[in-house]
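Today's session is about reading a structure prediction critically. Students often jump straight to the picture, but the first step is always the sequence itself: look for stretches that repeat, for charged clusters, for runs of hydrophobic residues. Only then move on to the predicted structure, which in these notes is written as discrete structure tokens rather than atom positions. Here is the chain we will use throughout the hour.
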Amino acid sequence: MKTFLITLAACLPLLAVGASRPNVLMIAIDDQNDWIGCLGGHPQARTPAIDTLARRGTLFTNAHCQSPLCNPSRTSVMTGLRPSTTGIYGLAPWFRTLPEFAGVVTLPQYFVQHGGYHTAMTGKIYHGGSGRSIKGRHIEWQEVGPGASGRPFPPKKLVNTPQPHRLVDWGLFPHKDEDKGDYQVASWAVDFLKRQARSKREGAKASGKPFFLAAGFFLPHVPCYATRKWMDLHPLDQLKLPPVHPGDRSDTPRFSWHLHWKLPEPRLKFLKDAGEWENLTRSYLACTTFIDAQVQRLLDTLRETGLDENTIVVLWSDHGFHIGEKEITGKNTLWDDGTRVPLIFAGPGVKGGQVCDKPAELLDIYPTLLELLDFPANKSLEGHSLLPQLREASAPRKWPAITTHNHDNHGIRTENWRYIRYADGSEELYDMKQDPHEWNNLLSPTRDKPSPSIRARADELAKWIPRQNRKPAPRSAARILTYDRDTGRTVWQGEEIKPGDPIPELK
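Below is the predicted structure for this chain, in token form.
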């Protein structure tokens, strides 16, 4: 009897605190660059739902991912650790397979342990099928819905790309919205929200717990298949292509190509030669608009059920995506097109109608939510709370955004500057106010020696490069690049890149 009373007494404060806290709806979008209306990345982007959410809350216009690749980026968001700390740079491994990080308390686990939340996810939050088990040693979520999917697929690829990867495809494909994986993800999330609202109305026991729901959408990740309904919102005869500069890469180090040496995503040269640049641009815009419609379904449900008054909404993407900029398509770069992502907070505790230009990182989501909800601080986190900016967008912030891709390649982004240093020591520096497209590398090896002020600027930014630079974790695979400083040997996915090797697809 005595033991029971002690246990019950210990639970009461947690339940009382948990009941008073807001719910959290986290919306993750895969491969979504800044082609969002409120971010201005493309003049023809149509995202009314996301734009409305931004007006309700605080929009970060200078937010960047930790890595321009799904697995390391999502690992950072959920663990609060940098890729340079975990050594996770590729599409494998799953961090739980590494003994050093097997016991890391992830964001949803922290909500359960310290807030008594009911946690649920659907779609893509971690990479692939990781983190979906609700049994066993490491349970990330208490409830799991449908996984992410690019389905349905046409009988055969629509575009014959140089590397015939099944997912690297795009174009008009007749099918039903209801059959799309992302529509089904949204439907499950809608049902979950309705269940939560109903239980609260009926006074069910479970209603004493707030919820943390994560919904992860697959599009506009390739394959970018869209129906006529969504394509027609972006008429081909009015389409604007992203701005590119002829010979843009002539002032970038050769090592910049090594980060995306041989990838399924084609180069700009292929898009032009095959007449596919317009098609890809239009398909990506159409898929983005489709995802916006799924976001609208979630936000409508919050409003219709009355949950919006006590639900914090966080929307983010794992990294950007090039559609011809810097002469490539895809991700795996340290420029703004590869790193800049939407990041929006809205709901209780967040000042509405704000636009913040301070640098922010996806790594900041974890500590921000903890402080916003008055959780105990997690001292292992490497990000910094954005709560000062959620209260007042102009609040000072000293930290830049730091993106890492493969071992010892880093990009540093401030309000005005981007600095990149590659593993071989080569560098780039861009004045982002004067040169927002990053067309003029102020540290180009083809230029005269930089002025003392430019050199000093680069050296000052270089001080932010993470001191811990772990080499690729055991069993690292898929898009792994290594460089040996002693020998100068560069290896891409097990294949050595020799100094005279021609850049693939640019022969």
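Discussion point for the tutorial: The chain has one domain: 15-392.
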